[in-house]
Amino acid sequence: MCGIIGATGSDEVLDLLLEGLARLEYRGYDSAGVALQHDGTLWRARAATGTRSLEDLRKVVPDDPLTVTAGIGHTRWATHGHPTEANAHPLLDCSGTVAVVHNGIIENWRGHTLASETDTEVIAHLVEEELAGGSSLAEAVRATLRVMRGAFALAVLCANEPGTIVAGRRVSPLVIGAGEQGQGLLASDIPALLGRTRRFWVLDDDQIVELRPGSMRVTTLAGKEVEPNELHVDWDIEAAEKGGFPDFMGKEIHEQPRAVADTLLGRLLPDGTLALDELRITDDELRRIDKVFVVACGTSYHAGMVAKYAIEHWTRLPVDVDIASEFRYRDPVLDNRTLVVGVSQSGETIDTLRAMREARQGEAKVMVISNVVDSSMARDADGVMYTRAGPEVGVAATKTHLAQVTALELLALYLAQLRGTLAPADVGLLVGRLAELPELIERILQRERDAAVSGEPSPVATVAARLADTRDFFFLGRHVGFPVALEGALKLKEISYLRAEGYPAGELKHGPIALIVPGTVVVGVATRTELWDKMMSNIAEVRARGATVVLVANDGDTETAEQADEVLWVPETHPLFAPILDVVPLQLLAYHIARLRGHDVDRPRNLAKTVTVE
Ligand code: F6R
After folding, report:
1. d(CA 21, CA 25)
2. Which residues contact 53 (CB under 8 A, 6 or more apart)?
3. Using a 6 Å CB cutoff, which residues line ligand 1?
4. ω into 90 cis (within 30 of 0)
5. DSSP E strand boundaries for 262-364
6. Which residue has the least CA distance to atom 3 on ligand 1?
7. 261, 193, 304, 241: which is closest to 602 by C-alpha?
8. Is 167 exposed, middle or buried (CB count within 10 Å of its CB: 0-12, 13-18, 19+)?
9. N or C: which terminus of the chain carries fewer CB neighbours within 10 A?
């Protein structure tokens, strides 16, 4: 996730860009940059100093800026290429007359010689080629977008067309604004422009806008002029940063379809195979692996538990999942045929980092699944696979967790494809099921939003209201439902401060069932898998002891619903992908209970987003 901004028709283009970038920092802060159109040339400044990028960018732009006719800016959360100045946007074509800022992922960037490590740079070169053939900037951008695959919102500036910015989008967001004095504005998000205008329009997929002082022209990629949709915005700036949600956690839960879709992007090929070519560990090395360890903490550990089921089932490789803080003290058996996978959204958690270092000393091949490009773990490891959830502000992990499970499922399938333990046709079928997941997550979340629009409490909020005074919760699951139960319990503990135990349902009768009394709330993951019958027998055991039963069930499954006091509905998918859907209502349950109890869900007590102490 990155933030883009553009402005024309104003004496204060540079101020506008810097002010907007500050408001877009929540979308990424690995680097920041601007390109300004001045006297028939482009002037560019960039800084890549992490959270200080914008501050450092301000130091390199002139105090008394040039006469600027138009400008574009960018704040980056790296997904492709290291967070360095060379990879910071705006990126230029060979001649330095075309500058591009981009949010999203271009899938077909290969085959061009690029000066940076970014997928974005290819856009500048394609536009350059079109301009050389005599196209106008708008025609050049249209032609370029017709051949681009992937997700993008982008803005392009050309030295030879003073005052003009051309921008376009597919999937990634882009809004256009119009200032009262004829300023033409654009940004990835409303907050970036709120101080300057309240008149906004949204571009649809595969539309471009030509912004000039006092004018705006929107066309399809075929060049047909269209009327853009105007937006009515009455948010204040803070609400806008949270996308209209009361907090970042709520916003981030609703961003999960995008986080999963972006994590899949470019990795599922049209022929039904998988490509993980940024992994840095060779296919031959992966073929030689004979055992896998996953090391992680907290929510990331739960993602690792799901991976165990998937990797073992599809590859027949034995997998151990270890809590990172325990791993290095238990003298694990490692050699050069062992693959150790660290899972960490921050890539900085010291327990996981140390466990991975221990594994490297034991000659294992070490890789990390991380949401932060060039994090300490990414630099330390032999291999890396990035999740692409964008920055997560809420302390409790939500969208990064779904992206982690997605990445681990991809890794499991990739290993199976490589080692031939799954037939290509089966990989193809599973790839198809994976690709459906963003849409299925959206379905769960859309029901919540629909209720909000009609002023009703949402389906999960209604269940939460009935449970908000309960003090003791049990979360039960079997097979991959077990890590989902653990994650549901952890979310509730973290933000609601309620006791919540996660258990494998079959284990209950070996002790903890003694704690079930009338009024205890038992939340069970009861979506359809081969173990559904057994799960329902365990639910019958707690019902018989007076528990209030809440079940996560597949849409329309009345047989499961009959055994529940409350139901949390989710669509059906392949059983090994079910954790990606089943955990969503449990995140929402914890979220609503915490809010009903008056807690700050973004900043739970005693917790930090990145834990760098042992
Ligand atoms: C829970 C949570 C923590 C983290 C854990 C590991 O919501 O966020 O349990 O999952 O501290 O952090 P990372 O993934 O950054 O290594």
Report:
1. 6
2. 29, 30, 31, 32, 47, 75, 88
3. 297-300, 344-346, 349, 352, 396-397, 490, 494, 610-611
4. yes
5. 291-296, 319-323, 338-344
6. 298
7. 241
8. buried
9. C
According to DSSP, the β-strands at 70-76 and 3-8 are antiparallel
pTM over 0.85: no
Q: Which atom of ligand 1 is nearest to the CA of 396?
A: 7
Residues in the chain: 614
- How far apart CA 401 and CA 398 sit, in angstroms, is 5
Q: Assign residue 487 a region (left: φ > 0; alpha: ψ between -120 and 50; beta: otherwise).
A: alpha
Nearest CA to ligand 1 atom 15: 346
CA 261/CA 266 separation, integer angstroms: 10
Q: How far is 392 from 299, CA to CA, in rounded Å?
A: 14
Q: How many CB atoms lie within 10 A of CB 555?
A: 14
Q: What is the CA radius of gyration of the chain?
A: 25
pLDDT of residue 234: 66
Report residue 60 as tokens: 């390199």
Q: What are phi and psi of 39, to 5 degrees?
A: 50, 45
**Cβ neighbour number for residue 545 with a 10 Å cutoff:** 14
Positive or negative: CA dihedral 146, 149, 151, 155? negative
From CA 579, how far away is CA 412, in angstroms rounded? 15
Range list of H helices, 420-498: 424-454, 459-467, 481-496
Q: In DSSP terms, which residues pair with 35 in a beta bridge?
A: 44, 72
Tokens representing residue 302 in the block? 């739960």
> Ligand 1 centre and the CA of 254: distance in Å?
19
Mind listing the pLDDT tens digit for each residue in 412-423?
999 999 999 999
pLDDT, position 405: 98
What 8-state DSSP symbol labels residue 225? B
pLDDT of residue 230: 87
Helix/strand/coil percent split, the chain, to 5: 40, 25, 35
Q: Is 320 exposed, middle or buried (0-12, 13-18, 19+ CB in 10 A)?
A: middle
Q: How far apart are CA 129 and CA 131, in angstroms?
A: 6
